[in-house]
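Hello,

I think I submitted the cytidine-5'-diphosphate job twice by accident. Can you confirm which output corresponds to this input? Input:
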Amino acid sequence: MPVERTLSIVKPDGVRRNQIGEVYRRFEGAGLRIVAARMLQLTTSQAELFYEVHRGRPFYGDLVRYMSSGPVVAQVLEGEDAIARNRQIMGATDPKKAVPGTIRADLAESIEANVVHGSDSPETAVREIAFFFSTTELCPRA
Ligand code: CDP
Ligand code: MG
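Support: Only one job matched these inputs. Its output is below.
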């Protein structure tokens, strides 16, 4: 398995409900390393750009409003097969369909307010990591 990096976000509902530590515990417990981290509140235009791929979908406007509604914590996770493994730890987009034990099944309120974002492919991961972090902000392995 290749060592990969992926972009993860604790979304505004997760920050609001004090779930940052619980989410990090799950990443670290699964052996993924946090190699960069940052808290910020997205502007409307940043949220629009981040979710550009969904522009035109019926949920896009609400998604942009929700993602810019409060602070988020963005992190880069590193590990073997990190992109797919993070998606497994997150669970399905709709918490009702997510496997028990996943972040979304256990912690999410709705299909929109679903606690976490995770990159879905190597190409997306490169784009999304660069959206939040410059190369010098990614910590080299000890
Ligand atoms: O986040 P994920 O990659 O699992 O799902 P997505 O299909 O890329 O959708 C991005 C985000 O849009 C989701 O995580 C939800 O917050 C939101 N969404 C929504 O509100 N309603 C939907 N029917 C689908 C997605
Ligand atoms: Mg997605």
